[in-house]
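Notes to self after the Tuesday call (sharing in case useful).
The group wants a holo model before anyone commits to mutagenesis around the pocket. I volunteered. Ligand is FE2/S2 (inorganic) cluster. Logging inputs and output together so the record is complete.
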Amino acid sequence: MLSEEIKREIESYIREHCPTPRGASIEALMVLQRHRGWLSDESIRELAAYLEMSPDELDGVATFYNHLFRKPVGRHVIWICDSVSCWIMGYEGLLEHMQGRLGINPGETTPDGRFTLLPIQCLGACHHAPALMIDDDLHEDLTPQKFDEILERYE
Ligand code: FES
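Result:
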């Protein structure tokens, strides 16, 4: 069941920005994910009913946006850019280092639940490739050593 806090946050967004509840679907999914960490089938069903949508419609929105998670993720999500500029500037070596350091492959979560590693398309930081994001933080001009230093900032 959606908590009163979640409902309040969604209702406030709807009041300010949307003529209909379904117009708030992306923001509402983000709110729910902030509270629950990821979007289970049950979460999708609960929210769909609240937004007067079918679960399939809302699932279509949730699976379209790669910052919405339909499976559990770690406390921090590392988005490694695998687009062309980052490829040219050393993506492969960096990824190999990251996989060794984290002990996981893209799409996986470390056993301690600290990090999930996911690929993403261009982050718009091509002039500072290779680049990645951890949660909402952009990190540029990466080297394996710089990656190791950055990692220490995330508990
Ligand atoms: S190609 Fe990686 S940031 Fe653009």
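Two things stood out.
The chain is about 45% helix and 10% strand.
Residues 81, 83-86, 122-123, 125-126, 129, 131 surround FE2/S2 (inorganic) cluster (CB under 6 Å).
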